[in-house]
Amino acid sequence: MNWIVTFLLVGGVFFLAIGTIGLLRLPDFYSRLHAAGKCDTLGVTLLMTAIALYNLHAPSFGSVLVSWKIFAIVFFIFMASPTATHAMTKAAMLVGVEPWQKKKGTRK
What we know:
Shape: elongated
Helix content: over 70%
Number of strands: 0
Distance between the termini: 45 Å
């Protein structure tokens, strides 16, 4: 069980780090929002799942109840984060935020 929890924790930290790098390195609002939305959802899901599984290491009624609550939070984040990302993207398009386009003759 410890190996599974460790794997989930490392995976969650990895995806959160990749999302942070994408947030800092990508060129425009839409790309940054995509990186943040996808990586943060997966990273938080993996981390919270690891916490819930670790909590079940010594099972009792209280720990099972806490783990179910953590899984409910995971489900909420899994549903709310992509919805919020979509709403922000649509609002940015309505306001007139232009997507980034590569200019001819540049290396970047």
